Amino acid sequence: MELPQARGALSATLSDALRDGTPDLSSVEPDDEEDLHLSLWMLYELHYRGFDGVDDAREWDPDLLTVRARLEGRFESDLRAACRPIVELADARGSVPDQLAAITAYDVGVSLPNFVQREASADQYLEFLAQRSLYHLKESDPAAWAVPRLEGPAKVALAELQYDEYGGGRPERLHSRLFAEAMEACRLDASYGAYVDRVPAYTLAVNNAMSLFGLHRRLRGAAMGHLAAFEMTSSLPCRRYLQGAERLGLGEPVGHYFDEHVEADAVHEHLAARGICGALVEAEPQLRPDVLFGAAACVHLDAVAAQQMLDAWADGRSALRVVRDREVA
Amino acid sequence: MSECQVTLIPDGPALIRGADRIRDADGVTHEATRPVVAVCLCGLTQRPPWCDATHKVAVKP
Ligand code: FES
Ligand SMILES: [Fe+2]
Ligand SMILES: [Fe+2]
What we know:
The complex is a heterodimer of chains A (329) and B (61).
Chain A: H1 9-20, H2 33-48, H3 62-87, H4 96-104, H5 112-118, H6 122-136, H7 141-144, H8 152-165, H9 175-185, H10 201-215, H11 220-232, H12 235-248, H13 252-283, H14 288-314
Chain B: E1 5-8, E2 14-17, E3 21-23, E4 29-31, E5 36-39
The structure holds FE2/S2 (inorganic) cluster and fe (ii) ion (2 copies).
One fe (ii) ion binds at residues 165, 231, 264-265, 268 of chain A.
């Protein structure tokens, strides 16, 4: 993947630093949320697939890790503050699955799935896929960082869930591959990270939260809470996305991706809520607040992204950023 | 025949591990294509015998 286009002072300096290693990042602050989340996303990407022309060894460059820690500190504290009211939806004495159910029932009154099912134009549906591609082309990868950090039944349940996400022994069923095929069927660019320049900060934030939780062992509770909330809010919406794809005649691979997730996530939600989070909190009770925080972060960031996309479309705008050179949809 | 493990989810489906096929009430056999499958017990699913999470939006009696 190429380095993304800069969105401000920090991402510009960071790009230069990644290319030739010279610029000093210690005093550069992000201009705004776009600059912050793109910079953080670039720093995280060094741990996944890296960038063309950037030395793989930079993944563990202490100066880059220092910048990352600074951005993470800011992101995490803002996120914890935003999630507090959502975490409070959970009854403090409830079981972990019941608490997760209360958090994932959080309703902001906007429904992206309803809109995509009934009203979205074909172009809007493609914008939706392009935004989602940032995650779905590495579907389940951020949660995989947690495997060596869990023990016993929680580890077994996570491995069981991941085995299904990763195709159940069949490369042609890898969920990330099903998503790539859906994109190709719509003539979208299915190469990894192709739409990073087009997605706004809110979609980068959705992805950065998963990497933040996945890459820090201390946040393993949040990583698993996030995974549970993701799975628990997937099956019913995927049915709507499937119906939207059928209404627009987008082609079988698009339907197939969402069809698979109606059924798969009706299983995964229980594996995640009970098998993983329930067992994790039993083994490590001190992780309960972070499990709930991770779940709240998932619903909060998803709600923000949904609101922003619907607002853009309601105003007759594209939900994607306009950039030089590349075109979509 | 190998052994299966069944987990009942309160107000939800039955999770079944280790099954290759599921036979429904009409005697029709359905292939289980993932390591764990969720069989609908509420009767409201649109894709029987599998749970499609409809039970979550069903009005409780
Ligand atoms: S038990 Fe889930 S739809 Fe019936
Ligand atoms: Fe998946
Ligand atoms: Fe899933």
